[in-house]
Amino acid sequence: MSFPKGFMIGAATAAHQVEGNNKNSDYWLQEQMPHSSFTEPSGIACDHYNRYKEDIKMLADAGLNAYRFSVEWARIEPQEGVFDEAELEHYRDVIRCCRENGVEPVVTLMHFTSPAWLIRKGGWEAESTVSDFARYAGYVAEKLGSELNYVCTINEANMGLQLAAIAKRFELMAKQAAAKAAEGTVQVGMNFQKMMENMKYAAMENAEAFGTPQPQVFVSSRTPEGDALVMRAHRAAKEAVKKAAPHIKVGLTLSLHDLQALPGGEEYAEKAWDEEFSHYIPYIDGDDFLGVQNYTRTLYGPEGQLPAPKGAELTQMDYEFYPQGLENVIRKVARDFKGELIVTENGIATADDSRRCEFIRQALAGTGKCIADGIPVKGYFYWSLMDNFEWQKGFAMQFGLVAVDRETLVRTAKPSLGCLGSFAP
């Protein structure tokens, strides 16, 4: 299977998950709390902040031609309205390192983490966040835009609604086994069980850190009003980026499951797809591209959402191993969204790298079929370049194409890195 010239084959990371010492962010504060829902703090993470040259070279040497990473808002604007030029220059260096290695940089402006000051103002349910995010986006585009071709404004802009639905379902589950299964239905590392147990203590600690017992971080359960606010923030940021650097292609990314209905489950699946994708169409219509992020499928029956089929292969995240879901999602999205599509995340958490290689092969085979049928897919980014900090689940999840020794931070390429690189045009 071969991809057209210019097709991006790459890997993705997020700043907080790999850089380390992101001390001005909301997540950093939450990780330090005595009753944190995080199994461990991010700390030095993978020290990608200092080792990015080594990491990008390893990516390029394996044949990959693109790298999706995020710039950290909490580093660039550590205090409201105060920008850190040195941190901005750091990201300029990362972009230039990509270019020097023949790698296309694809930048995400907000990948879950926010500056702590933003959360103290009301976070992702506060109207002021729209203009705050646009100011930051415009600043980055003004300073770095001449060196970029692609910008994702917000990563998984629909995550808050997915979490709201899961949290509601989780509360109704009486058995711990069933609760554990719920964590495998959202495409982000969450510890709902621990969150429920710590709720009383966490409220007090949040009030001390953020001035409110329920801070509205980006991955808080979103209200419908907050969901619309996130979309307005995206559009305001897009406008700011285009004003500073009109040539940049701008879009956002969405977390999308391959929603499959068994007989009697059609209505549930349709409602879920509307919540996950369809109702965003008016907000993203006219965007240059959409970032598609898929890891698995979700089944629906007459009673609603179903667990993975009995005997199904599950990943470390309790997702069903289902790489063919990506092709299904691309085809479904392309019916309604007419801009370019980029697979900004697709991957698997497993200790068995041979299964990772097989996942990549099947996912790319499906992507290739979509392109052959005329769907404008412009790139594929595996999640993730390296084993990293999987949010509340800590460092135990192995998504990486590269292993990172937790003691020495020494990098070791897995065979899957070369497997992915072999598909680059």
Query: Helicity level, as a percent range?
Result: 40-55%
Low-confidence stretches: 174-179
Number of helices: 17
Question: Per the principal axes of the C-alpha atoms, what is the gross shape?
Answer: globular
Strand content range: 15-25%
* Number of structural domains: 1
Quick one: CATH class?
Alpha Beta
Biggest β-sheet, characterized? 9 strands, parallel
Strand line-up of the largest beta sheet: 5-4-3-2-1-12-11-8-6
Radius of gyration from CA coordinates: 20 Å
CATH superfamily: Glycosidases
Draw up the topology in text:
Blueprint: E1 8-12, H1 15-18, H2 26-32, H3 48-61, E2 66-70, H4 73-76, H5 85-100, E3 104-110, H6 116-120, H7 128-144, E4 150-154, H8 159-172, H9 176-183, H10 192-197, H11 199-210, H12 224-244, E5 249-251, E6 253-255, E7 258-261, H13 266-276, H14 281-284, E8 289-293, E9 297-301, E10 304-306, H15 325-336, E11 340-345, H16 353-372, E12 377-383, E13 402-404, E14 411-413, H17 415-421
Parallel strand pairs: 1-2, 1-12, 2-3, 3-4, 4-5, 6-8, 7-9, 8-11, 11-12
Antiparallel strand pairs: 9-10, 13-14
